[in-house]
Amino acid sequence: MGTKGRSIVKMDIGRVVELLNKAFSDEWLAYYQYWLGAKIVSGPMKDAVIGELMQHAADELRHADMVSTRIIQLGGTPVTTPKGWLELSNCGYDEPADPYVQRILEQNIAGEQCAIGVYQAIIEEVGLKDPVTYNIALQILNDEVEHEEDLQSLLEDLSSLIARHG
Ligand code: FE
Ligand code: FE
Ligand code: MG
Fold first, then answer.
1. Domain of residue 78, residue span
2. Over the stretch 126-163, which tens digit does the pLDDT of each residue have?
3. Does 18 map to a domain?
4. 90 alpha carbon to ligand 1 midpoint, in Å?
């Protein structure tokens, strides 16, 4: 990163990189969980759910890209192995062992709720001490809030469908 760009970071840069690498790990695991979920999901409203899961997978990959760009600007190195993702992740990986649509939605809702907490915490810790990281975290937080809402509304539609048709 440029010297002026670095000089405006008013907190330990190593700590910012640590926060970002943990979030980066979450994003890759979320990407794979959505990607695989879209392949295997089964049950009512499958097509609508697949469309949403694929969109979210693409968003999580874009988030990994945004976070890694900032890590590199700060002089850090994005986590280099999938094993590292599991070690550093805040939210972990929830294996979609049961492909039933309701279960997949519930797992991904829990993942989004975790992600919302992660970016909220980054925003609180970094604040105006690193406005560039703050801005990236805020953009991603907006997406995660939207993701949670999308999945919860699909789950509501699914529940009313099941209630009507038994
Ligand atoms: Fe994300
Ligand atoms: Fe998300
Ligand atoms: Mg969506």
1. 25-165
2. 999 999 999 999 999 999 999 999 999 999 999 999 99
3. no
4. 12
